[in-house]
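Pipeline run #58 for the internal structure catalog. This entry was flagged by the ingest filter as a single-chain record with no existing model, so it goes straight to prediction. Upstream metadata was stripped on purpose; only the residue string is passed forward. Reviewer on rotation: M.T. Logging verbosity set to normal.
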Amino acid sequence: MEGQTNPKILGAKLQRQLRNAPTDAERFLWQRLRSRQIDDAKFRRQHPFENYILDFACLERKVVIELDGGQHAETVSYDAARTRQLEKAGFVVLRFWNHEVFENMDGVLEVIRTTLRTRAEPSPPNPPLEGEG
């Protein structure tokens, strides 16, 4: 089932419910991620992947951003297993606490930008100038 979406996630319409009722932190960060604002990376929100719905995912660069509220303090082992599964599938997982998004948006965006740049495809070399090749 690797790389495939669990039919229960789509069948239950959980993705739509989460997209239509974002947390304040998700809404705030989405305003900065949408429309390729950071390093021309296309992010999706509440994107299904295997048995999970990812808060934000840039599929072309395989970067996942998860926002954690207070409830995640009680789900540390679940979150760690989820991160391991996503890493096994080739993703880099960035986790931020909700308060970081509100109190340090510039820092959060810099971590995201730096990660995206490390995951970008290298540009092809420029062709030699006339007479140099």
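catalog note: The chain has six helices and four strands.
catalog note: The longest strand covers residues 52-58.
status: ready for reviewer M.T.
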